[in-house]
Amino acid sequence: MRIDIIPNAEQHGITHDEIRAVVSYPALRIALAPRIPNTTPVLHIGPAAANEPWIEVIADNVTPTELIIFHAMMLRPTL
């Protein structure tokens, strides 16, 4: 699967490796309402590695084999 990470996803200091780990092996995956036509946004939640803090990553599924990551940060308590 192709994973593209846009600059918005880098705002909170989450590394590309951490983002890829959470997207590849999430503890939870939730479909969200689309914000852009013809996409399927998905929230991925989980730690990047064992005993690490949990991270939230939101990706637009552009095609079945391509994700565009536009949000990544430490998991918020409200979520």
What does this structure look like?
β3 and β4 (54-63) form a beta hairpin. The protein has 79 residues and is mainly beta. It has one helix at 16-24; strands at 2-5, 28-31, 40-47, 54-63, 66-74. The protein is 11% helix and 44% strand. The chain has a 5-stranded mixed beta sheet with strand order 1-5-4-3-2, with helices on one face. 22% of the residues are buried. The termini are far apart.
Described by the principal axes of the CA atoms, the overall outline is: globular
Helix segment tally: 1
In angstroms, what separates the terminal alpha carbons? 27 Å
Helix content: 10-25%
Order of strands across the widest beta sheet?
1-5-4-3-2
Listing every helix as H and every strand as E from the N terminus to the C terminus, the arrangement reads: EHEEEE
Any chance you could write out the topology, listing elements then pairs?
Elements: E1 2-5, H1 16-24, E2 28-31, E3 40-47, E4 54-63, E5 66-74
Parallel strand pairs: 1-5
Antiparallel strand pairs: 2-3, 3-4, 4-5
Based on the model shown, name its key terms.
globular; 79 residues; 11% helix; 5-stranded mixed beta sheet; mainly beta
